[in-house]
Structure prediction request, 363 residues.
Amino acid sequence: MPSETLLYHPLMFASRKAWRKIIDRYGPAHPSTRLTRLIIRAAMILETPARLLETRRIESWMRRENPENEPIIIVGHWRSGTTHLHNCLHSTGAFAILRHVDAIRPWAHNPLHGRFSRHLAASNRKIDRMPIHGEFPQEDEIALAAMGTLSSFHFAYFPDHTDPIFRRTVLLDGVTDEELDEWEHCLRFLFAKIRRHQVEPLPILLKNPGHTARIGVLYRRFPGSRFIHIVRHPYEVQASTRRLVKNLIQPLSLHGPSEDRFSAGINRRYREMILAHLDQRKLLPPDRYHELRYEDLTLDPEAAVKAIFQHLGMDFTAHHPDRLRRYLETIRSYQTHPHPEDGALRKLVEEECGFALDLWNYR
Prediction:
């Protein structure tokens, strides 16, 4: 069955230089995606003036201002509840975030409540039907996927190379200092975009599952960074991650119709990511790292958010919980997607991820 031609694909907002590097590394693309690729390239050409103007504007601003080196970063394996935590913290009004519109279109100037933001206003996230809006917070990995070659999100576009992409972009195996310098520059570029939208400076809050096994590098590159790690029962995480194939990877794949290559290695990649994270967190001072369970966040969101504020040394004043409650009311009817019981997966999790079950009291 041929792939559906996409009128929108996130890579249409990449630079042509990044596109060539990505295709050279992960191609060739499947012939059935030819029209999608033509649309991507046409959009890149149309975006060139906006990209050049924004690059000049942001880099000039970066030269005048001190580079940001104190982001607060939410990490956790995919489907661990990072988005819910991100939205809860953002709802308090205490943090600056990367907007969805800027993550999708990182190289262009996107005015507050501009046309592109309004176009995204009625969207729902394909993975889990969570509502999204152009002004909502979004993970920086989506932006990094359009800005260079070092992004775990590329496995959604090139699933035939899921394992090499995971090892290179999440575990950072074989990545050179030059590549990390370019990646760091992209992050600083995003920080500058965030800062330029602010009336008053607020702590920058990022969310990115891909950063879970990069906290050591991030801490070295941004010595003021702090990390919030959210964990969830490994079985629930892996069962939910399988849905990525149908709802994210298949629609965006440039390798054509995707077989279940992504699902086959979920347990192993979970284990490698979490073990790398646990090893790297030993390098962090205690005041730079906070951990919570998704189950505790859903049971008492206000208490979990208050504990994060206290750990960050921030006042949790009356208007913060009021705003949080208003946000929670807007998602009160939202229900998580039920997963059919998979005995084989549960057994695999118990055998190979027992360390996580024990560490986070999931036995």
